[in-house]
């Protein structure tokens, strides 16, 4: 599969068009994402009800006591939504961390090792990138059993291929520069070279793709949970809550709407944040994702 | 490249699936004797050396035989073909509809990017791309099947395609669901490709020679702008296919996705293996076709032996 990397010259016209919206993307994204993060953090310290408390009456509509209503066992949905926010943040952070670590290591190996290893790794990455995340995730879930850990591991591994390819490309470009050659000539070892020159130059190009992967990871986990391959309630992710709510949607529509809205808010928030970061960090890079 | 990828997929699937739990336990009852367990293992063929099992599996594959299901002992290949009757039309129709939505939306969003409706189109495509596909499905079912009762809420006619009207009606909402999400995604790429083309010097030069905007766009713009869009189309077609796996659950459709999920729950190796192998092959083939089409359209790519190498060289 070919993904043509656009040169800086190709990207300029579109960038000119969109300059000036920078702050809006960053602010709206920051606020949306910030609210979700705040809810997730708050859920660690204070919840309106115990997650397994079934005293609320079944499928109640939203009220003063139960802000989001109750599920079919009488558990408070607002509590579950807060826990869902925590799980979504865990999923995003965990899989992005795995993607970053695995991707950067593989990318650096490909960039610094010899031509043969580079070719082999690059072909492997092409295949890995073509392989759909969700199919890989289902394979991992089939292997390790349905749990949040399996989902995070699978989504992170799937995302690492893209990061590895980016790292490889940027790292080899940096390694070809004069100052790196000068440093190598003066006796700097490969590992120290990577730490001093390559990583600081590679890192900034990875921030935006990693931020986009955060949103992708949250959707992927929600999809897995929705088809029953996630952790069960009451510590359920938004995807699992939607699955539970689908059968009772006519009686309790709020249960089928609120988790979806939160998912969308999270994804749009983090995507806008990524767009805003890109506009700030790299004004020329907006046209092609 | 394609063959290498395929071989790799076969090996990985085989290895990973052999790491799974023991399928024998899915077949026997609680308190089975050692002899009964051994008999079940022998029947499934999982008691033999792993390399021997792998060799048999590869031999089977060369005869296009995907083995028999552990749970019902029916040929996996036949079952997959039967399921494709649902999944393939679903994927293809959804993909076509998403292109039909995405091209005008993306074009107008770029062409009229400074007007309110241009902005609205890009905002809607941003939003649509961020919505989980299964949630769109739930909302559509609730609105158009449960409340308005226009479409069936789920399921597929037992007679398969004998009654094409009923089959199409059952697929309408699933197709719409996938098309909304992947159409929005695609529209964003069409928009950025169009923006890119509109800002190019050759467009200005073409206008300066007296060509109309439409003429210049059709003659020069599309040929240039379509190259990145095609590689996205191939990826999009694979994500549409994977989206179908999820959406089949929303609408209780007996497709490939449903088969995969049930097989995972029942630890039915040959079925999981078969479905994943067929899906992977389809995805890889699509990528290959996209590469070829790109090379036909863009002569610059033809000069090099491998498009991948070229992309790497540029970077």
Topology:
The complex is a heterodimer of chains A (289) and B (315).
Chain A lengths: L7 H11 L3 H24 L31 H36 L2 H16 L2 H12 L3 H28 L2 H8 L4 H37 L11 H9 L6 H29 L8
Helix pairs in contact in A: 2-3, 2-10, 3-4, 3-6, 3-8, 3-10, 4-6, 5-6, 6-8, 8-9, 8-10, 9-10
Chain B lengths: L1 H17 L5 H4 L6 H11 L5 H13 L13 H36 L4 H15 L2 H15 L16 H35 L2 H8 L4 H38 L5 H10 L3 H29 L1 H4 L4 H8 L1
Can you walk through the features of this model?
Chain A: This is ABC transporter permease. Chain A: Its main location: membrane. Chain A: Belongs to the binding-protein-dependent transport system permease family. Chain A: It comes from Labedella populi. Chain A: Keywords: Cell membrane, Membrane, Transmembrane, Transmembrane helix, Transport. The complex is a heterodimer of chains A (289) and B (315). Chain A is 73% helix and 0% strand. Chain A starts with 7 loop residues before the first helix and ends in an 8-residue tail after the last helix. Chain A is built from ten helices and no strands. By secondary structure, chain A is mostly helical. Chain A has helices at 8-18, 22-45, 77-112, 115-130, 133-144, 148-175, 178-185, 190-226, 238-246, 253-281. Chain A is elongated. In chain A, helix 2 (22-45) crosses helix 10 and helix 6 (148-175) runs antiparallel to helix 8. Chain A has a single domain (27-37, 77-281), classed as MetI-like fold (Orthogonal Bundle), CATH 1.10.3720.10. Chain B is mostly helical and 315 residues long. The longest helix of chain B is centred in the C-terminal third of the chain and has 38 residues, at 213-250. Chain B is globular, with a radius of gyration of 24 Å. The model of chain B is unreliable at 305-315 (pLDDT under 50). Classes of the chains: A mainly alpha (289), B mainly alpha (315). At the A-B interface, helix 1, helix 4, helix 5, helix 8 and helix 9 of A face helix 1, helix 6, helix 7, helix 8 and helix 10 of B.
């Amino acid at each position: 599969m070919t993904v043509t990397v656009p040169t800086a010259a190709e990207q300029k016209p579109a960038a000119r068009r969109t300059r000036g919206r920078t702050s809006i993307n960053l602010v709206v994204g920051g606020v949306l994402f910030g609210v979700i993060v705040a809810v997730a953090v708050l859920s660690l310290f204070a919840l309106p009800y115990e997650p397994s408390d079934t005293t609320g009456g079944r499928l109640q509509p939203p009220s003063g006591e139960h802000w989001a209503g109750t599920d079919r066992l009488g558990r408070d949905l607002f509590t579950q939504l807060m826990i869902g926010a925590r799980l979504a943040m865990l999923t995003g952070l965990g899989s992005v961390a795995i993607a970053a670590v695995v991707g950067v290591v593989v990318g650096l190996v490909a960039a610094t090792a010899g031509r043969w290893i580079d070719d082999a790794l690059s072909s492997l990455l092409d295949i890995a990138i073509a392989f759909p995340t969700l199919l890989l995730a289902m394979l991992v879930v089939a292997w390790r059993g349905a749990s949040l850990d399996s989902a995070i591991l699978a989504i992170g591994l799937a995302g690492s291929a893209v990061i590895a390819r980016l790292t490889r490309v940027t790292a080899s470009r940096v390694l070809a520069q004069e100052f790196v050659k000068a440093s190598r000539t003066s006796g700097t070892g490969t590992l120290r070279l990577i730490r001093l020159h390559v990583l600081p130059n590679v890192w900034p190009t990875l921030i935006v793709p990693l931020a986009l992967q955060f949103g992708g990871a949250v959707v992927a986990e929600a999809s897995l949970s929705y088809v029953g391959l996630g952790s069960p309630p009451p510590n359920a992710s938004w995807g699992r809550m939607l699955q539970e709510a689908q059968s009772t949607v006519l009686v309790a529509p709020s249960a089928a709407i609120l988790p979806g809205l939160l998912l969308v808010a999270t994804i749009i928030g983090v995507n806008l944040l990524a767009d805003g970061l890109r506009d700030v960090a790299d004004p020329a890079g907006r046209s092609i994702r | 490249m394609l063959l290498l990828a395929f071989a790799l997929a076969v090996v990985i699937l085989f290895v990973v699936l052999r790491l799974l739990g023991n399928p024998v336990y899915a077949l026997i009852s609680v308190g089975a004797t050692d002899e009964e367990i051994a008999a079940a293992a022998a029947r499934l063929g999982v008691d033999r050396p792993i390399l021997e099992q792998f060799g048999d599996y590869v031999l089977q594959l060369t005869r296009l035989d995907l083995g028999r299901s552990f749970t019902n002992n029916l040929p996996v290949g036949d079952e997959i073909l039967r399921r494709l009757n649902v999944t393939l039309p679903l994927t293809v129709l959804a993909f076509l509809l998403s292109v039909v939505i995405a091209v005008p939306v993306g074009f107008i969003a770029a062409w009229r990017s400074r007007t309110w409706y241009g902005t609205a189109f890009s905002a809607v495509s941003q939003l649509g791309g961020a919505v989980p596909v299964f949630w769109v499905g739930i909302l559509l079912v609730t609105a158009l099947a449960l409340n308005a009762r226009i479409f069936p809420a789920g399921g597929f006619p037992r007679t398969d395609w004998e009654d094409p009207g009923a089959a199409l009606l059952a697929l309408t909402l699933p197709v719409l669901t996938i098309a909304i999400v992947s159409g929005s995604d695609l529209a964003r790429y069409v928009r950025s490709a169009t923006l890119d083309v509109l800002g190019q010097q050759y467009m200005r030069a073409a206008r300066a020679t007296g060509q109309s905007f439409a003429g210049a766009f059709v003659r020069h713009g599309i040929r240039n702008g379509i190259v990145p869009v095609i590689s996205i189309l191939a990826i999009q077609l694979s994500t549409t296919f994977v989206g179908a796996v999820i959406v089949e659950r929303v609408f209780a459709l007996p497709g490939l996705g449903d088969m995969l999920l049930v097989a995972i729950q029942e630890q039915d190796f040959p079925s999981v293996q078969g479905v994943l192998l067929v899906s992977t092959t389809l995805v890889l083939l699509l990528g290959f076709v996209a590469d070829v089409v790109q090379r036909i359209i863009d002569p610059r790519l033809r000069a090099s032996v491998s498009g991948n190498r070229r992309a790497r060289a540029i970077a």
